[in-house]
Amino acid sequence: MRMTQKRIVLSSDHTAIPLRQAIAAHVTARGWIAVDIGPMTPESTHYPRHAEAAARHVASGDCRFGIILCGTGQGIMMAANKVKGIRCGVCLEPYSARMIRQHNDANMLSLGARVVGEGLALAIVDAFLEAEFEGGRHADRVAMISALEG
Ligand code: RB5
Fold first, then answer.
1. Ligand 1 within 6 A of 13 CB?
2. Which of 2, 77, 95, 131 has the highest Cβ tally under 10 A?
3. 75 CB near ligand 1 (under 6 Å)
């Protein structure tokens, strides 16, 4: 396995720093390399910047997956999906996290730190990381998503 295949980039806005750090520790304990690009201090900040920075790590191939967080998970997800090659979903429970890997070949996961607690967030992360893309008819549909990127 190439080293990239074990790297996960993490980022957030100011609302989610403790949860992001808990996720970084959790995935590290499971054998992943956590690339935590911050922010590290709690001043109010702009989630699109952190979405883009994380998404570039994934789109460039530097990291296999990205996990991003803001208050709801929604704004940072919207921004990440503007970067070519990114498929990012917000998940509130593990089922959706598994399905966005199996059917949508998602390469980024977004979480809302004001929506999910730490225990649920870690279960969502595990579901996302343990699932595999199923390919087949789903690959055709993912290709249709990519064709929309222009
Ligand atoms: C910050 O107050 C909040 O707007 C942000 O974290 C996020 O929820 C936006 O989608």
1. yes
2. 77
3. yes
